[in-house]
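Long-time lurker, first post. I've been practising inverse folding by hand and with some scripts of my own, and I keep getting stuck on stretches where the structure tokens seem ambiguous. Below is the full token string for one chain I'm working on. Before anyone asks, I'm not after the true native sequence, just a reasonable design that respects the backbone. If someone could post their per-position residues I'd love to compare against what I wrote down in my notebook.
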């Protein structure tokens, strides 16, 4: 049996450090916005290469709060892509803005800049490029388009901790960036968590107000905010894991390279020349995808689809007004994409076994 994902092996490998870190928090008696969160924010900001990081309750809330901090609200439009976690669009709609979808490129499966230009209207307030599957979008043209039209850019980095674009880590390019620490992410907590990163001091301050009731001082709300805080336990856990992130990302890349070398009958994911991907997911394409899943299941190999329905094809999002055929590249991907098992603890022998099973299917 080769499961699609297994988080228990990673815990076993860092049990001593994690148990110490959680015990330290439990003994301290301080659980919300304390020294662990502060230290993690500093360490994560340094790792990514920005001035400010704020820990929040989840990646979804990170996008929501970041958009609010940019001033996005009712009457505005925010452009993103149809192949993303539904969370991206949930967060956009939570601000009251309308989500506008722009199709993706067939090679990278990421935001298509030519189609982005056509999606812009006078109401466009922000663009949310999603660095999906661990690969950066082509940011230079997106930033150029945004800057000439005074549109904000929020990078959705939920699947791209440590991925680079032209030598710099994603999360450093836009006005603001959102990360998720959902347990399966490249940097995952043992519960929900997220972070908002920016180089803009005023934006960072607004984020910090928004995440805690608009408080500058306790019990005195300067603006209307909410409760979305990374907790001390998760921050202490993330501090342990952050130190291992580069090694884990390298292990993901090694396994991905082996898949790409061995797979013969399906289209492997393409690494764009402009940046290094961190393979949050290893997503292949096959015109016989559903039969391939069934074949792999008979061999005890777990797979997943990210995502089985593009945003505009989900019942809750018919309101966005995109009919069948309106976002053709994403709709083709919906029929053909398949995620193979890939995580740092997956053995190279398991990678070979999965590749062999896929090759046999043809
Ligand atoms: C691309 C993307 N954006 C946003 C999110 C939301 O993060 P979270 O699950 O922490 O709310 C996720 C993860 O689910 C994601 O993959």
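-- Answer (accepted) --
I ran through it position by position. Result:
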């Amino acid at each position: 049996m080769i499961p699609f994902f297994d988080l228990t092996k990673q815990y076993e490998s860092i049990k001593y450090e994690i148990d110490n870190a959680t015990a330290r928090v439990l003994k301290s008696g301080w659980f919300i916005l304390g020294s662990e969160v502060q230290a993690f924010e500093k360490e994560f900001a340094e790792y990514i290469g920005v001035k400010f990081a704020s820990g929040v309750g989840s990646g979804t809330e990170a996008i929501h709060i970041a958009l609010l901090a940019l001033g996005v609200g009712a009457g505005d439009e925010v452009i993103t892509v149809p192949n993303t976690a539904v969370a991206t669009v949930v967060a956009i709609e939570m601000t009251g803005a309308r989500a506008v979808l722009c199709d993706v490129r067939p090679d990278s499966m990421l935001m298509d800049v030519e189609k982005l230009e056509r999606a812009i209207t006078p109401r466009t307030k922000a663009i949310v490029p999603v660095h999906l599957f661990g690969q950066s979008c082509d940011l230079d043209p997106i930033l150029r388009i945004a800057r000439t039209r005074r549109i904000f850019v929020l990078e959705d980095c939920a699947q791209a901790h440590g991925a680079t674009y032209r030598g710099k880590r994603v999360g450093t390019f836009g006005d603001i960036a959102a990360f998720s620490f959902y347990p399966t992410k490249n940097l995952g907590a043992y519960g929900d968590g997220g972070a908002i990163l920016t180089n803009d001091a005023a934006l960072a301050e607004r984020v910090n107000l928004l995440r805690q009731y608009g408080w500058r001082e306790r019990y005195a709300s300067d603006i209307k905010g909410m409760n979305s805080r990374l907790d001390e336990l998760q921050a202490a856990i993330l501090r342990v894991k952050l130190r291992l992130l580069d090694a884990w990302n390298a292990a993901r890349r090694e396994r991905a390279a082996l898949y790409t070398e061995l797979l013969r009958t399906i289209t492997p994911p393409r690494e764009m020349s402009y940046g290094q991907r961190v393979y949050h997911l290893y997503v292949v394409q096959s015109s016989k995808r559903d039969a391939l899943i069934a074949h792999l299941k008979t061999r005890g190999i777990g797979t997943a689809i990210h995502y089985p329905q593009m945003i505009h094809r989900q019942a809750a999002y018919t309101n966005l007004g995109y009919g069948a055929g309106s976002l053709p590249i994403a709709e083709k991907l919906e029929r053909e994409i398949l995620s193979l098992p890939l995580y740092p603890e997956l053995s190279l022998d398991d990678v070979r076994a999965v590749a062999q099973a896929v090759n046999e299917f043809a």
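A couple of notes from the structure itself: The chain has a mean pLDDT of 97. DSSP finds twelve helices and 13 strands in the chain. Happy to go over any region you disagree with.
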